[in-house]
Amino acid sequence: MWRSILCHCLPSQPSPCRLLHGYSATAWRELKPKKINKESPIMQLSSSSLLMNVLYLAGAAASVYLAYNWSRLPVLRRMLFLQFIFILLHTIEELRWPGGFVEMVSDKLHFTLASHQLGDVVLASLILIMFLPPLLLPRLKFLAMVPMVLGVLEFVTHTAAIWMFDRPMPYTPGLVTATLLLMPVGVYSITYAVRQHLLRPVSWLLVPLYMLVSVLVAQMVVVSSSGMDYRQFLNNAKGALLGG
């Protein structure tokens, strides 16, 4: 309708009118602005990375705070901030650069991550569970040891994964930061706590318990969301560990 009115108003311009009349309905629809596909890979990457990006910004802020207050902070508090920064660098090596950790596990254990967004939520939650309590409750020294033991175990598991996942070279995504950053801070902090008698023997037992429960719950959420039975996942992991 509006195309006909435009043509009659412009009798001296026959060419544009003919062009307007010649457009098909399909062609005019194609000229309309297209809606953004929320399921596109770009949108999925943006949404799934949001939480981790917030943590990375928190890590950058922690770096500035630590550099400015290093001499004023107690030793364990320094190490906590340092380990928080290093665990974020560790996730970058595992998931982004060079990345490939999730794919490595999925291929060997026949496990497919249902949602990268859910994976990021669980990972971010696990990091906060490991680091927020010791920072907010500094008197509970055993909480400060949880990220330190985790740092040592990261080195052990990434090294063992070279054989578990039949790597063509002696490297798994995350091994460099686990070896050069997480493990040294973990060993130093644990040694310091032992020498200073900061924890009672019973408190040391709470460290692996707290860490084990946190990791298992996070792991169960991710595995169950994919539709895989958690016992099957453990059997696959056992088979990979034993070379099956």
TrEMBL record:
Pfam families, per the entry: HXXEE
Transmembrane parts of this sequence: 50-68, 117-137, 144-165, 171-190, 202-222
Listed InterPro entries: HXXEE
Top-level taxonomic group: Bacteria
Keyword RNA-binding found: no
Keywords: Membrane, Transmembrane, Transmembrane helix
Protein name, entry field: HXXEE domain-containing protein
